[in-house]
Amino acid sequence: xxxxxxxxxxxxxxxxxxxxxxxxxxxxxxxxxxxxxxxxxxxxxxxxxxxxxxxxxxxxxxxxxxxxxxxxxxxxxxxxxxxxxxxxxxxxxxxxxxxxxxxxxxxxxxxxxxxxxxxxxxxxxxxxxxxxxxxxxxxxxxxxxxxxxxxxxxxxxxxxxxxxxxxxxxxxxxxxxxxxxxxxxxxxxxxxxxxxxxxxxxxxxxxxxxxxxxxxxxxxxxxxxxxxxxxxxxxxxxxxxxxxxxxxxxxxxxxxxxxxxxxxxxxxxxxxxxxxxxxxxxxxxxxxxxxxxxxxxxxxxxxxxxxxxxxxxxxxxxxxxxxxxxxxxxxxxxxxxxxxxxxxxxxxxx
Length: 350
Ligand SMILES: Cc1cc2nc3c(=O)[nH]c(=O)nc-3n(C[C@H](O)[C@H](O)[C@H](O)COP(=O)(O)O)c2cc1C
Known about the structure:
Elements lengths: L9 E2 L5 E2 L3 E3 L15 H8 L6 E8 L16 H16 L4 E6 L16 E2 L3 E2 L14 E4 L2 H20 L4 E6 L4 H6 L14 H19 L4 E5 L14 H12 L6 E4 L7 E2 L5 E2 H8 L4 E4 L4 H9 L5 E4 L1 H5 L3 H6 L17
Parallel strand pairs: 3-4, 3-15, 4-5, 5-9, 6-8, 9-10, 10-11, 11-14, 14-15
Antiparallel strand pairs: 1-2, 7-8, 12-13
Bound molecules: flavin mononucleotide.
Flavin mononucleotide binds next to strand 4 and helix 9.
């Protein structure tokens, strides 16, 4: 009997090969210590999942004031870098491959995490709703980043990528999805700028591309992936029909860069978006981007196998099933039933 496509190996590029097509999706767990240093419990958590073809870590902040929660890990100082070495060593000891997701939350934050300052974003905006994982806090106003602040952020991404590489990561994923900082520049609802970072697809894509080049120059483009959500769906960004043009432009530019992959940031990849020519996010990316594509959002063994065999995408990332089933790949391989995900599982880091 033929081996299912999902268990076949995949050559990402001349530096990196995956032992199967299943990636562990990045998932924030808020189990780092108060100084944003990862713990040995986190090393065991990731090592347990090293059967994945690729592990993508939880969002890891590039600066202290890039965060929107307490207890998320960082990669901007020596102690964090040293502690991440335990994680990469443990994953590599189990023959795993691991990328770090680099994160700046932008407006999805609160002054209480930012020494009292307003969160930065592409523009001045107002978010409503409660801050996730922080009791009693409400989102609110953001202020537009100055050009100097944007340049500082780009440099922080480059330093974070170098730190991650020094800590033993096989690569990094730029979190350009899910309504966080880079995504705030990519959608018209949140980007009202009139300088070279707003107003046109070229300008709105500029920050994403500058970050990509800064990281690519720091550690090599083959070790840099990017997560994107061309359809607005999370953190109060509304879709705009013109957003599709921004992502077409960005993906066209990405085709010219020898980066590792593009990864769909989504919870339900069956959803179609009017601004994406009524396509799903993954089919829109596949239409406009010719490099390696990781689909994500509600996939099962059957839907992932079908998508890979139809060439709709190359790899699949699974999130919640990996929280509920540390041995997910083995269970899929041996057709054992999966434990269903339950949000209560987030309280412990098994
Ligand atoms: C608890 C939790 C935390 C998450 N944190 C992140 C994150 O840090 N970065 C990110 O890009 N996506 C994050 N996501 C989204 C997942 O990467 C993924 O897109 C989502 O869970 C859908 O995949 P699934 O249906 O296989 O779970 C998170 C999801 C969950 C459930």
